[in-house]
Amino acid sequence: MSVPQSVASRYIKEEKLLRLLQRLFPGTDEADFNIRLADDRWSFTAPSLVAASDIDTITEDH
Length: 62
Known about the structure:
By secondary structure, the protein is an alpha+beta fold. The chain has one domain.
């Protein structure tokens, strides 16, 4: 089951978000994450909830 999620796009690059998702969910096809940007929010699907602390590791202000 995939979990739809969204995060504010500020300071996050798509490439880093994809790499994080691939690290957290190895073996998941890139297309399955369905990463998209709309209204200054990154939306994606993942096999389970991604913790805010994981997202924080890829923000540009860290």
